[in-house]
Amino acid sequence: MRKVVWLIGLVVGVGWAQPPKGISKKAYENFLQAVRLAQMRQPERALLALEEVVQAEPTYEEAWILKGKLHLQLEQFAQAKEVGQRLRALRHRSAQGHAWALYFLGKAYMAEMAFDSAQKVWGEFIHAAIGHMPNRYQEEGARLFSQAQSAARLVKEPVPFRPTNLGPQVNTPDEEYLPSLTADGQRLFFTSRRPRRERNPLEPSGDEDLYWTEKDPQTGAWKPAQPLGPPINSPRNEGAAFFSSDGQWAFLTLCDRPEGLGSCDLYFSELKGLSWSEPRNLGAVVNSSAWESHPSLTHDRRRLYFASGRPGGLGGSDIWYTDFVDGAWQPPVNLGPPVNTPGDEYSPMIAADGRTLYFASDWHPGMGGMDLFVTYLTDTGWTVPRNLGYPLNTPGDEQTLCLDAKGEIGYIALVRPEGLGKHDIYAFPLWPEIRPKQAATYVKGRVEDAETRAPLSAWIKIVDIQSRDTLRLLRSNAATGAFLVSLPLGRRYAFFAEAPGYLFYSGHFDLSERDTAYQLTIELERIRRGGRLLLRNIFFDFDKADLRPESEVELDQVVRLLKENPQWRVEVQGHTDSVGTAAYNQALSQRRAEAVRQFLIGRGIDAKRIVAKGYGATQPVADNRTEAGRALNRRTEIVFIGVE
Predict the structure, then answer these.
(1) CA 374, CA 402: separation in Å to the nearest integer?
(2) Strands 440-449 and 518-524
(3) Pick from 611, 603, 527: which is nearest to 569 by CA?
(4) 485 phi, psi to nearest 5 deg
(5) DSSP string for 205-272
(6) What is the DSSP letter of 354?
(7) How far apart are CA 535 and CA 558, in angstroms?
(8) Of 187, 252, 170, nearest to 484 (Cα)?
(9) pLDDT the model gives residue 402
(10) C-alpha angle with apex 518: 513 to 521, nearest 5 degrees?
(11) Less Cβ around it within 10 Å: N or C end of the chain?
């Protein structure tokens, strides 16, 4: 949710006991009533009162100024333009009235995309405002003069933006915005402002709640959206939220809560089985006495970006981040320039690569309102933000974007005449210039007991084989066994699933030259006599028995398993394909099994617990007539043979 700036705070002081000279008492009373209604955040009713005022007193400058502000607040730019023209035409207008006339005209020309006219008006406004309007308006005029120039350039070089409305299953005549997507692009969360059944007439007409929808696996169409329900949704508003790439964690923006530290704070909830946990405030380390919103979590779950108006920033709202270290969130750090500016930055969205950041700003060169930008993290810092271009960005406010792990499809909330409501969610293909620098894919599936097929809550760990860094660590869902995890392309990974009392599962994904999404059903076998552990990340050079360094990633897992179960004795089995003589294969497999045994002993496992045995090509698991089959037959296994 974006902070709402109520323009009524800009109304000139009105506390006079008597009407201004030449203004009737009745008109003045109506004007004061309009001010009160505006301050109560009822701009439509305030405009009705003002219409009576200007009909009775067409030269009442203050009434016209307030009328213009209210039209801008409601984004009624045609009416604001008319007010500017009426003010400009007043015979005895003041210098202040002239400046406000230019302000309203400039805003309207920007909305109409009449950028040449806007440049002319803003150039005149900059001088007219001196001494007659607060300095912030002069600064805004200078900025919008520059924005009109940049907008004219952007319109001349349109981008291939092709949005598709998600349709009535997701969008309604009300407002839908702030989309958040799982890594596989199959589940979408969003905020919607839909009518309450019973409401206070002084409150906004809709209640902000969180909703979700998923794609039909057969048709690929979105299913009817459902409310997320309690304990996340409540009688209060639930605004900007971000859901982790697997859809199991939620970072929420909740405002005006009894336990809150500021006007809006960041909260955390976790999907435990089939139910969300009670939202928990992230605490005083992350939240401040100011405003925090728009969270976005990296796919490795180690960094949380968010928008905040806290002290110490560069502008009204800046982008900050906090790192998760040793089980705790650290003090937030301002992202700094060139991303943050003296203006407002909102809606950070970090891509799956952890180095591509999309965000909204009203300061960087754009179309005049809030525009969306992209910046990339390099060895020397963040790059100068790039405007995503026209017609994705318009003179209105574009500020919510998310995309799938592959960086191919984006989801955005837009105000468009053809939409079903004021804000609708659209999907669009990303063109190369704005895609993440490093694409990603995903692995999804289910972990279950090999015998009973019951779902298991297992740790899912993905390790970069080359660097040996753990890149992803998460749990499968306890009720369904489901998991979903993203993988940046261009690397080789070891994949592990493990649960207490079970042999771990190991997988291997080589994404150095391919882009493949994986769907797995992982059956974990209980630790028992005869239990067999297939090691898919043990590597030897061709025709040799020397373990390659990248094998240590998986062997360390074996060491940990054996230390956690010290009563068990195991046999390390080496197997080959059928290429070569039986004697040769037997000897090679024996040497390789012994190499694994010696590694385990070197890591502290008692030698008496480990037997090494080579089986050559005598126990194939696949057809040796194909290369794929021979690759499966070349393997190392750990078999649990008894207890001490």
Answers:
(1) 12
(2) parallel
(3) 611
(4) -145, 140
(5) SEEEEEEEEEB-TTT-PBPPPEE--TTTS-SS-EEEEEE-TTS-EEEEEEES-TT-SSSEEEEEEEEE
(6) S
(7) 9
(8) 187
(9) 95
(10) 145
(11) C
Residue type, position 320, single letter: W
H-run or E-run covering 583: helix 582-602
What pLDDT, on a 0 to 100 scale, did the predictor assign at position 439?
87
CA dist 602 and 610 (Å) reads 12
pLDDT at 5 over 50: no
| CA torsion, ordered 173, 177, 182, 184, to nearest 10 deg | 60
**Strand, coil or helix: 561:** helix
Q: What is the DSSP letter of 542?
A: T
Structure tokens at 628: 């794929």
Q: Strand 206-214 to strand 187-195: parallel, antiparallel, or no bridges (unpaired)?
A: antiparallel
Query: Is residue 252 exposed (0-12), middle (13-18) or buried (19+ Cβ within 10 Å)?
Result: buried
What is the distance between the alpha carbons of residues 435 and 414, in angstroms, rounded to a whole number? Answer: 20
- Tell me which residue has tokens 């109520």: 6
CA distances from 585 to 44, 588, 594 (A): 86, 5, 14
Q: Domains of the chain, with CATH numbers?
A: 7-156 (1.25.40.10), 170-194+206-213+224-434 (2.120.10.30), 439-519 (2.60.40.2190), 527-644 (3.30.1330.60)
Report how far residue 132's alpha carbon sits from residue 130's, in angstroms, rounded to the nearest whole number.
Answer: 6
Q: Rounded to the nearest 5°, which phi and psi values hold at 269?
A: -140, 150
pLDDT one-digit tens code per residue, 209-237: 999 999 999 999 999 999 999 999 998 88
Cα–Cα nearest to 444, from 498, 522, 499: 522
* CA 596 – CA 636 distance, rounded (Å): 9
Computed from CA positions of residues 544, 545, 548, 554, in that sequence, does the dihedral angle turn out positive or negative?
A: positive
Q: Find how far residue 104's CA is from the centre of its chain.
A: 35
The phi and psi torsions of 518 (rounded to 5 degrees) equal -115, 140
Nearest to 475 by CA among 503, 456, 494: 456
- The radius of gyration of the chain from alpha carbons, rounded to an integer in Å, stands at 31
Over residues 440-499, the pLDDT tens digits come to 999 999 999 999 999 999 999 999 998 999 999 999 999 999 999 999 998 999 999 999
pLDDT of amino acid 203: 45
Count of C-beta atoms within a 10 Å radius of residue 2: 20
pTM for the model stands at: 0.88
Per-residue b/e over 188-219, b at no fewer than 16 CB within 10 Å? bbbbbbbeeeeeeeeeeeebbbbbbbeeeeee
Residue 165's identity, in one-letter code, is N
Please report how many Cα atoms fall inside a 13 Å half-sphere around the Cα of residue 35, on the Cβ side. Answer: 18
Angle, vertex CA 289, rays to CA 285 and CA 291, nearest 5: 95
